[in-house]
Write a structure and sequence with these properties.
Strand order of the largest sheet: 6-3-8-7
CATH superfamily: Nucleoside Triphosphate Pyrophosphohydrolase
CATH class: Alpha Beta
Number of domains: 1
Order of helices and strands: EEEEEEHEEEHH
Number of helices: 3
Structural class: alpha+beta
CATH topology: Nucleoside Triphosphate Pyrophosphohydrolase
Oligomer: single chain
Amino acid sequence: MSMPRLPLVNQEDHLIGYKEKSACGPDDINRVAGLVVYNKQREILIAKRVMTKQYDPGKWSYSVMGTVEEGETYVTNILKEAEEEIGLILRAEVLQPNWYGYFESSHKFFYTQFTTEVNLPLEEFRRQADEVDELRWVPAAELFARIESEPQDFVQSMSRVTKLLRAGLGW
């Protein structure tokens, strides 16, 4: 099976070519989509990355993240990733775009963050064992405080993403 090819983009998020995922380096700019799932109790679903991940292994992140592959858009990627990583089947209409822009952390990427409200118990989610080690519902205020007090437990971009999320949701 061949390695997925990732779109490479310039500083304006315009397509400039493709590379196999394994060949991408720190100066390549890719596209990443993220999804923050929350419920009516203002709890946020967080996911712990497996230890085999290239970036931020064993760290907590928001619900779903995915690197956009050839032939995908930010929306089609996050719908696919939500189903694969946590067993959540969504329609594009329930995704609320929360933020879009350029990011630099352990690598460079354009990031589109979506949010959606889902009121399901934790048992209803099916985590992909080779991507997600654990899922938890966490009250938003508690999560935001923990990200600030224990940033080492979270992916590198978590603090910055949280500021964008809070502004977008008005929390």
